UniProtKB/TrEMBL annotation:
Similarity comment: family membership: Belongs to the V-ATPase V0D/AC39 subunit family.
A single MF term (Gene Ontology): proton-transporting ATPase activity, rotational mechanism
Protein name stated in the entry: V-type proton ATPase subunit
The organism's taxonomic lineage, starting at the top: Eukaryota, Metazoa, Chordata, Craniata, Vertebrata
Protein function: Subunit of the V0 complex of vacuolar(H+)-ATPase (V-ATPase), a multisubunit enzyme composed of a peripheral complex (V1) that hydrolyzes ATP and a membrane integral complex (V0) that translocates protons. V-ATPase is responsible for acidifying and maintaining the pH of intracellular compartments and in some cell types, is targeted to the plasma membrane, where it is responsible for acidifying the extracellular environment.
Record has Ion transport as a keyword: yes
Length: 384
């Protein structure tokens, strides 16, 4: 009965999305892209794929940022087509996906406004998936002096205002003083990660209320993403120049759910260097092996100061987590009648765009030997 109700409301949109799966770049198409000598060649090759003539009107020479933005615009167009036809609760689910990009857009606009960038330049660089009309208000506000206006814009005029409200209320009861300190270069990344934590927890609670196959598939993905965030925030802080006091702020960025939560998260909270992280993950084989695989990357940064030879193919934690997320999202397509496939498609498409941007950068830098670092989507399995 549950499947009948699902198909009557969401079956058509899921079918469309499964059709989108065939639009991912193939192994042969990636091969052609890696053989391109210029960005104009790459643009021509993309025109023969599902991307079509999406950059036909762009003048030459084309920039990597333009390629990235146009790819994102195409994905956002397809996403909004799905969202425009979705019924509840799928529409709210899709809104949660868009809110992640809204957070990135708001933070980017705040940073750009602090750096005196023009509103036109800032708005041209936002992620179209996270666009909302009130973004223009952010580019025109005085973030350094007019705290009341900042509060009005962030708390009232943005769809993610509840996450800002939560951040402000948990840091200090005096909102005005807090606004004057949170909008500076030192705290901006802390703000981004704290907002992402609030969004992730909110999204997970929504998934739990949905229940059924969506909770099973999407719950597993979000629990894994929560764990990835704990590991990423931890390694980035202990391998940075942040003071111990600021490193403690990372604990406030850990999501309150996931496979590591609560025992593993509590152990990681107490870590202060790579060795203690290594020990904290001993009871979690998958993450322990993941850390073993990437720890040389962080040792590489230390060895560079000693003029030791290092392997440029060593992967960072973020590189490995991208691979893990791709596999998780590919698996979501193996089951039917759940919302997880919509999230999976977005994340896989984002990775494909990262692949295209990486190839573009390597062509521009004349470093084709590094192009192989891309992560193909739905790569054909080779027979053993």
């Amino acid at each position: 009965m549950e499947l009948c109700f699902y198909n009557s409301k969401n079956g058509y949109l899921e079918a469309i999305l499964r059709g989108f799966r065939s639009s991912f770049l193939t192994t042969e198409e990636y091969k052609k892209l890696t053989e391109a000598d210029t960005l104009e060649d790459l643009k021509s090759i993309l025109e023969d794929t599902d991307y079509g003539s999406f950059m036909m009107d762009e003048p030459s020479p084309i920039a990597v940022t333009t390629i990235a933005q146009k790819c994102k615009e195409k994905m956002a167009h397809e996403f909004n087509y799905i969202r425009a036809q979705a019924e509840e609760p799928l529409r709210t689910f899709l809104d949660y996906i868009a809110k992640e990009k809204m957070i990135d857009n708001v933070i980017s606009l705040i940073q750009g406004t602090l750096n005196k960038k023009s509103p036109e330049e800032l708005l041209s660089r936002v992620d179209p998936l996270g666009y909302f009309p009130q973004m223009k208000s952010i580019t025109s506000m005085d973030v350094q002096n007019s705290h009341d206006d900042v509060l009005k814009v962030l708390l009232i005029e943005t769809p993610i205002g509840s996450y800002f409200d939560k951040y402000l209320s948990t840091n200090t009861p005096n909102e005005k003083n807090n606004v004057s300190t949170l909008l500076n270069d030192m705290d901006i990344e802390i703000l981004r990660n704290t907002l992402k934590k609030a969004w992730l927890e909110d999204f997970y609670n929504f998934i739990r209320k949905l229940g059924g196959k969506t909770e099973e598939v999407m719950g597993h993905i979000l629990k894994s993403v929560a764990d990835f965030r704990v590991l990423s925030v931890t390694l980035n802080t202990i391998n940075s120049s942040l003071s111990l006091e600021l490193q403690k702020d990372r604990n406030d960025m850990f999501p309150c759910f996931g496979y590591l939560y609560p025992e593993g998260t509590d152990r990681i909270r107490k870590c202060w260097n790579n060795e203690t992280v290594h020990a904290a993950l001993e009871n979690y084989p998958m993450y322990y092996d993941l850390y073993e695989e990437c720890k040389q990357f962080y040792m590489k940064n230390e060895n560079m100061n000693e003029n030791k030879l290092v392997d440029n193919n060593i992967k960072s934690l973020e590189d490995l987590l991208y691979v893990k997320l791709v596999k998780l999202c590919e698996t979501a397509f193996d089951q039917h009648c759940h919302f997880g496939i919509f999230y999976a498609w977005v994340k896989l498409k984002e990775q494909e765009i990262r692949n295209i941007v990486w190839i573009s950068d390597m062509i521009l830098m004349n470093r084709k030997e590094c192009i192989a670092s891309i992560i193909p989507i739905f790569e054909p399995q080779t027979d053993l």
